[in-house]
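Ligand: phosphoenolpyruvate. Inputs:
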Amino acid sequence: MRSKIVAGNWKMNKNLSETETLLAELAAKLPDTNAEVMVAPTYINLIGATRCLENSTIEVIAQNMHFAESGAFTGEISADMLLSIGVNTAIIGHSERRAYFGETDAILAKKVVTALAKNIRVLFCFGEELEDRKSGNHFAVVESQLKNALFSLDASVWSKIVLAYEPVWAIGTGETASPEQAQEMHAFIRKTITEAYTTKIADQVSILYGGSVKPGNATEIFSKPDVDGGLIGGASLVADDFVAIIKAI
Ligand code: PEP
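Predicted complex:
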């Protein structure tokens, strides 16, 4: 059975003491759940976060990583650096990295290869822009994002991949894909993976939905059979909201 996952992407929010406060509140309020719960604070707070969560099942994950092993890449963070502080999962391909930092499918493909070679679990984000949906190109765009970044990988590494379908028009906008739109796309993603690999791989990969998930809409979105959880931005910064979303799964 595939894992249910709720992951919070804190983006460039929360300084160290705010991070510690929010994590303490989350750890204290974490409900009993079979879902994996993850949080992605900013880089400089990763070590602090792992220390705060030493006795918690909440996993600390990274928002990004570089594809090179090491070297002259000012401001960047490598897979080994993450591993050295006990961070074993990285978000790769978030739409903000694609839009503001020029991360192309080709760059993302390299990051994925490096992460997997280092045994880092990849939470891979992708999704169409509003124009793609309006013009009816959303399935083609999603298929090409998957193909370009992931479909050259060996079947054996897919157990280390989690997918997050995040329609760009729904991220941080308050606009959410309807549960039906999410289900339709998630089913399409599974079909695409079946065609590229096998039904077994497609059935085992967790596919999260991301885009303005809130306590008020989480239950309905998570009730869809191909939605295995959520990648949560804004609502993950408020302990009670994030906890309510975890309860919804
Ligand atoms: C995100 O950034 O991945 C995200 C889903 O953000 P939000 O929940 O704020 O739309």
